[in-house]
Amino acid sequence: MRFSLGLGVLALATPLQFSPAFASFDDQFACDAIGDGAYTITISSRDPSQASVVYQLDGDFPQEGEPDVTKLKAAPSASGFRYTGGEFEFHGKGNEGRLSDGHEVVDCRFQGEPVLEEEEARVLPDLSDDMAWPPLNAMGFSLGGKVRAGPGIDTPQIDSLQYKEPVVLVQNSGIEMNGYYWFKISYGEAQEGYQWGGIMCSDALHVIGIYETCE
Questions:
Q1: How many Å apart are CA 153 and CA 64, to the nearest integer?
Q2: Which residue of 22, 71, 147, 186 shows the fewest CB atoms closer than 10 Å?
Q3: Interatomic CA distance for residues 111 and 180, integer angstroms
Q4: What residues form DSSP beta bridges with 144?
Q5: Averaged over 54-77, what is the pLDDT?
Q6: Per-domain boundaries in the chain
Q7: Cβ(170)–Cβ(192) under 8 Å?
Q8: What are the CA-CA distances from residue 196 to residues 59, 67, 160, 182 (Å)?
Q9: Cα separation values, 42 from 26, 170, 185, Å
């Protein structure tokens, strides 16, 4: 099955344009649910011609054994980027895409930060004083993507989180980008950093500035 996308997207470099010499973390696309789980596509930062797709069950359903992983390879595409392997075909443009597993077609979204146009870039305020927003310490999940040293895309990337990786939303930084706020988070073994609210969810009440509540 072949399909093409005509999508209006944010200005974002496609994974095929990333240079392995500069990319440190793999890029991920999370797809809409099918049955009791969902597909995640991972594009290698070391070799953008290689990708993989895995089906993982929702957290409410126990996973028996390791999930099946199918390797994908870059394939010619009239626009955007395209990967194929087994029964799978993934075709994307910008930060959106569609995956066919030979039976169904689902929409997928890039789990990272949108790149602002130059005129939209802002100067970050001095955060040496205490931040104005009260501490949250709310449990949540990252939907995958970059962790940065400060609240903005012009601060260094210090880590990368997987889809549905648990985090604690420590505090809203008060810095807004594209309708969502940057949050100070903690995760793993006492690690800390900042992640954009557009790629996080939480079931805690009244968390302003994140993408959505978790299902």
A1: 38
A2: 22
A3: 15
A4: none
A5: 76
A6: 15-110, 131-201
A7: yes
A8: 23, 28, 12, 4
A9: 6, 28, 23
pLDDT digits (tens, 9 = 90+) for 176-211: 888 889 999 999 998 999 999 988 988 887 788 898
Q: What is the mean pLDDT of the chain?
A: 77
The DSSP bridge pattern shows strands 135-148 and 37-43 to be unpaired
Segment 100-125 mean pLDDT = 68
CATH class, 15-110 region? mainly beta
Predicted TM-score (pTM) of this structure: 0.52
Q: How does pLDDT run across 81-96, given as a tens digit for each residue?
A: 899 999 999 998 878 8
**Which CATH superfamily is 131-201 part of?**
SH3 Domains (2.30.30.40)
Dist. CA 77–CA 141, nearest whole Å:
34
Tokens at 172, concatenated: 């809203």
Q: Is the pLDDT of residue 127 over 50?
A: no
